[in-house]
Design a protein that fits this description.
Layout (H helix, E strand, L loop, with lengths): L1 E7 L3 E8 L2 E9 L9 E10 L4 E5 L6 E4 L15 E8 L8 E3 L3 E3 L3 E5 L4 E3 L6 H14 L4 E5 L8 H6 L1
Parallel strand pairs: 6-8, 11-12
Antiparallel strand pairs: 1-2, 2-3, 4-5, 4-7, 5-6, 7-8, 9-10, 10-12
Length: about 170
């Protein structure tokens, strides 16, 4: 007896064929995410344009991305042409312009949002109990690397150190 088994979701489609209860064919098709906002790239500085107070960076997606001075980790110092740069896309490219990027990288987790280039530790305003806010700030200070910050989310109210580390 032959069976065709199909599982489809927004992320992937799986098709399996069995014969006599044995798998004879398996096809997996994953949807390609074309959205680049939030993606982090290692690029190369292509040219510096003082007139627009910014930098064009090749991040390997076609058009060079644009990095404004205010989105540099150190606004006082432009990188040099040819130097590598780590940046996060904050606005997708269009037909006319490349993507807009920032060196101020942030990543979202269940309990916190990490912020590069800052030592700021903040706690959600929805957490009102001062002892809980203080405990969460202490955890944040302990787990953050140098030049990293955190915004601790409301979901972290009852989280412990291990849960933060895993997140």
């Amino acid at each position: 007896m032959n069976r065709v088994i199909l599982s489809a979701s927004t992320d992937e489609t799986i098709l399996a064929v069995t014969r006599q209860h044995k798998l004879v064919d398996l096809e997996i098709e994953q949807q390609i995410n074309t959205e680049i906002v939030g993606c982090i790239y290692k690029g190369v500085v292509k040219n510096i344009v003082p007139a627009v107070d910014g930098i064009f960076v090749d991040i390997g997606i076609g058009k060079n991305a644009f990095l404004r001075r205010k989105d540099l980790l150190n606004e006082k110092r432009f990188p040099t042409e040819g130097s590598p740069i780590l940046a996060q896309v904050i606005k997708s490219d269009t037909d006319m312009k490349g993507a807009l990027i920032t060196e101020k990288i942030s990543m979202f987790g269940k309990y916190a949002v990490t912020l590069s280039g800052t030592g700021y530790i903040g706690v959600s305003k929805k957490i009102r109990q001062e002892s809980v806010r203080k405990r969460l700030k202490e955890i944040g200070k302990e787990i953050c690397a140098e030049h990293m910050g955190l915004i601790i989310r409301t979901a972290a109210e009852n989280a412990d150190m291990d849960e933060f580390r895993k997140d």
